[in-house]
Amino acid sequence: MAEKKPHILTGDRPTGPLHLGHYFGSVKNRVALQDKYNTYLLIADVQALTDNFKTPEKVAANVEEVAIDNFASGIDPEKVTYVIQSAVPAIAELTVFYGNFVTVARLERNPTVKSEIAAKQALFAKGVTIGFFSYPVSQAADITAFDANLVPVGEDQLPMIELTREIVRKFNATYNMDALVEPEAFVTIGARVRGVDGGSKMSKSMDNAIYLRDTPEEIKRKVFSAFTDPLKASKSDPGHPEGCVVCEYLRLIDPENNAQLMEDCRNGRMGCVADKKKLAKMLTDYLEPFRERARPYAENRTMLKEILHEGTKRGNELANEVLRRAKEAMKINYFTK
Ligand code: TRP
Predict the structure, then answer these.
(1) Average pLDDT, whole number, for the chain?
(2) DSSP readout, 35-75?
(3) Residue of 219, 227, 259, 270 with fewest CB within 10 Å of its CB?
């Protein structure tokens, strides 16, 4: 029976292990949607190289790890198609064509790229590279190459989806043909997770992340180092759970039973140390099935490579078909007419 499910495409940059911010910000949604959608997951190694081109070993080392983190989160390799970006030439070709539909000024306004450039001043000391500056165009190619209807992402990726939609509309209108599918974003607003240091965002580069496959010891160490309410010096002081990341994580993991805990923090019945003990235990239990699900893939790299290889082959079939349509629209299908 022909499968007529709508398509999902989303991706991860293989630059490090996935953490709670990735999970609650977006991976959880893709896990929930994998039955209803024909899901393509992209390991965006080409995009990762745009700001890691001097350390390719770092990118290469994380390709399999990122896939394992997704399986750890509940992605079923039988249900999704896993694709490695650099092994899909059609994405690179589409990127070139989409460049015709994006002005330099349009890219300069992208708030996510702006803040990334600000954070990477050393790398871009002599100027921002074309590769990094234009990665949103290549991301539009990632998305459209798999006929994506829906793109589950974290909030910071909304500008990329908006640009993709613009490119699709302009492309289809210019060539008067529905060659490309216009995607929609799927985000959980307000799902951003702060770092253990209280920083605005959990991130590997800020060294404030709890990773999905952290050991119980690592979880404990990180939780006990976490930022809490500076005004609550001792247990009996009235607490302010809004500003405290320990309270934030407790709420994330167990939103239903959170009200009493927060009340006990406020009225001085519960102290930060007790909260941290509770959180370390809860997080360890919460992440235990993640470590379990990861194990078979981490221990059988041959099987893992096979999954990625097979998925990439299937991904190429679809991406080549989309490229064929795009070339037909642009009237450069000389030899396939
Ligand atoms: N830019 C995304 C991130 O940093 C990763 C990514 C690459 C992506 N290609 C994509 C996400 C396509 C969604 C769709 O997390």
Answers:
(1) 95
(2) TTSEEEEEE-HHHHHTTTTT-HHHHHHHHHHHHHHHHHTT-
(3) 259
Residue ranges matching CATH 3.40.50.620 in the chain: 7-193+300-330
Instruction: State yes or no: pLDDT of 2 exceeds 80.
Output: no
The pLDDT assigned to 99 comes to 98
Q: How far is CA 204 from the centre of its chain?
A: 13
Residue 191: pLDDT band (50, 70, 90) is confident
CA distance 228 to 264: 15
Compute the distance from residue 146 Cα to the ligand 1 centre, in Å: 13
Best of 7, 8, 10, 18 for a ligand 1 pocket test (most atoms within 8 Å of beta carbon): 10
Q: Is the dihedral of CA 301, 303, 308, 309 positive or negative?
A: positive
The DSSP letter of residue 183 is P
Please give the average per-residue pLDDT across 72-79, as a whole number. Answer: 98
What's the DSSP call for residue 189?
Answer: T
Give pLDDT, residue 60: 98
Question: What class does CATH assign to 216-294?
Answer: mainly alpha
250 CA from centroid of ligand 1 (Å): 28
Helix (H) or strand (E) holding 40: strand 38-43
Q: For the segment 52-61, what is each residue's pLDDT rounded down to a tens digit? A: 999 999 999 9
CATH architecture of 7-193+300-330: 3-Layer(aba) Sandwich (3.40)
